[in-house]
Amino acid sequence: MAVDISLEKDDGVLKEILKEGEGDELPSPGCTVKVHYTGTLLDGTKFDSSKDRNEPFSFELGEGRVIKAWEIGTATMKKGEVAVLTCAPKYAYGKGGSPPKIPPNATLKFEIEMLGWSGMDISPEKDGSIEKIQLRKGIDMTSPNDGALVNVHLVGKCEDRLFEERDVQFNLGEGEDVGVVKGVELALEKLKNGETARLKIKSKYAFGKSGKSEFNIPPDTDVVYEVELKSFEKTPDSWSMDNPQKIEQAKILKEKGTNYFKQNKFNIAIEMYRKINNYISYDKLFSDDSKIERDSILLATYLNLALCYLKIEQYNEAKEYCNKALEIDPSNEKALFRRGQAHLALASPEIAIKDFEQVVKIEPNNTAAVKQITACNNLKKKQLAAEKKLYSNIFDKFAAKDNHISEK
């Protein structure tokens, strides 16, 4: 029996189920659905069929890439379901039709088999590492911003095994401090107020290479979270603040970053320090009166970022922030020393030694820099010895080849 599923209840889209689907889950906007279909006119004339091509058809639900009747009808279908949609012209190709196969003002029939669907890809790299399927719509269209205080309910599963369920409140960007994985944090910025979603999260945005022994989750394991965004309070946008407010916000973030650094939570500390840029990095906004304080905060921020990146062995990033610090204070001891450390870790002792020598020139009693100069010289000797050995081996091989040829 056909049922009117059109939103206006005008008999524009009639649905008749030929085969019941599995479970209760339905595809949500943003999902990529995969179907087989056969389209006919009312007289039975077939005008298209994915089955004849032996190639399923996929499209993103809610993106307007198919006729309106399909948007409405496929959103009501369960996995494995087979249904016939009878589509009035208004919900199909309208007055113009789609020549040459579909005449003007044509009512169409589609037999559709729902093969399945995948969630919306909301990963930063668009590589499918965070996949979202909406389970319940939000109560409005607002979403939390970075730093917002969020209240969420989390249900975490690994291969259908429940490993955590809890309510938690935290500021976005600081989820690691309360055990919230990065994939959930990234997804929350895209959820609407009151929305519930299922998230399929690859290991790199979950518990990574270390896994989570507390939850009996092995390394490199994907997980699934059901997340309800119960409520949130947005942080003020930087454009809405005056300069004193921006500087005050930068101080708050700097203090947070320092506290996380002291707890060896270097990734969250980096998040806090990097946010400072959003408030005070644009130089032209600050007058002479506030520029001195702004530069002082930025200098400390860049130095702290360099130290954090040294701790997590991301030496190129450490070098980058030392350079930023030196743009503000070209003779800063800490910036030169830390840049030297980064160069030394990157096996560039000939560059590193210049930074350490500059530190000693500024402060002759800096014994740490003197020791680093010795370390640079030792590494240069080792590299030179290794190069000599390498070239010696190459020349020996050439000599042996020449001797072998001459013997012929």
Characterization of this structure:
- The protein is an alpha+beta fold.
- It is 39% helix and 22% strand.
- It has 10 helices and 13 strands.
- The chain has helices at residues 50-53, 68-74, 182-188, 243-262, 266-280, 288-311, 315-328, 333-345, 349-362, 367-407, and strands at residues 3-4, 13-19, 32-41, 46-49, 57-60, 82-87, 108-118, 120-121, 130-136, 149-158, 161-171, 196-201, 223-233.
- The strands form 2 sheets. Strands 1, 2, 3, 4, 5, 6 and 7 form a 7-stranded antiparallel beta sheet that branches. Strands 8-9-12-13-10-11 form a 6-stranded antiparallel beta sheet, covered by helices on one side.
- Helix 4 (243-262) packs parallel to helix 6 (288-311), helix 6 (288-311) packs parallel to helix 8 and helix 8 runs antiparallel to helix 9.
- It is elongated and about 95 Å long.
- The N and C termini lie far apart (92 Å).
Structural class, from helix and strand content? alpha+beta
Task: Compute the average pLDDT.
Answer: 93
Query: How many beta-strand segments?
Result: 13
Largest sheet: 7 strands, antiparallel
- Indicate the low-confidence ranges by residue numbers: none
